[in-house]
Amino acid sequence: MTEERNPNRGILHYDTGKTKFSLTRRLPSDDLRFVVQHYWLIEWDLRGQPPYAQEVLQHPGVNVVFERGQSRISGIESKKSAHVLQGEGQIVGVLFRPGAFRFYYPGPMSALTDRVVPVTECFAIDSRDYERQLFALEDPEQRIGLVESLLRRSMPQRDDTVELLNEIIDAVIHDRGITKVDQLVDRFGVPKRTLQRLFHDDVGVSPKWVIQRYRMHEAGELLENGMDIAQLALALGYADQAHFSKDFKAAVGTTPLQYVRSRNA
């Protein structure tokens, strides 16, 4: 199963965020592990405080999000996204493994990229009634059990393509030396055009996007841990700091130096 070394990678300025909300994760039951990466549960109480916008660089997986009044399916967001927390609330989310949501969605995953659609587009439920049932349960495990019952209604068969895609993405996560798609072609013996098509249809983004996104996840974490920007650029395979800063700004919206300064502000 694809898994981050630090599961909080991609949550920008998480040290600040965790003072605004609580986040827990749960692994799926054995029979759903080939489609579900993990469940994520968030609670917050900001009554009497200003809203908080949590910025995220999303993983290459679709999220199904259950939230009172706005349950939704969130495709991969190719750029930085932000979720505004205000008042009090709760979320039960499902992060699907890369390539696995195509079992539930009747089309190429690229059609969901940068889109949010109602949860009812893929699941035959009354969303308001389902939200009432879900959030009436106090125990997180019971909430997950209800969600798993929903997922099992359209239980897919195991698929070798999903496993291949996750092996490829695992390699990207754990080997920072992978900086080019051609390296994946050589390592896994998949023709480049075939690889591009698989990622487009089954994941929703290109393999190049996945490589760059995980390098930016790593960059954010190491910057927050105090690593020198020039050293970081070299560690991630960049020829110089300028090219790294350009890619970082394109993904995060600020330069690495601005990111560090905003964290320390």
Keywords:
sequence-specific DNA binding; Arc Repressor Mutant, subunit A; AraC_XylS_family_regulators; 17% strand; alpha+beta; Jelly Rolls; 265 residues; HTH_AraC; six-stranded antiparallel β-sheet; 2 domains; transcription
Description:
This is HTH-type transcriptional activator RhaS. Keywords: DNA-binding, Transcription, Transcription regulation. It is a single chain. By secondary structure, the protein is an alpha+beta fold. It folds into two domains: 14-152, Jelly Rolls (Sandwich); 160-264, Arc Repressor Mutant, subunit A (Orthogonal Bundle). It is 41% helix and 17% strand. It has ten helices and eight strands. A six-stranded antiparallel β-sheet has the order 1-2-7-4-5-8. Strands 3-6 form a two-stranded antiparallel sheet. A hairpin with a 4-residue loop joins strand 4 and strand 5. The longest helix is centred in the C-terminal third of the chain and has 18 residues, at 207-224. The mean pLDDT is 94.
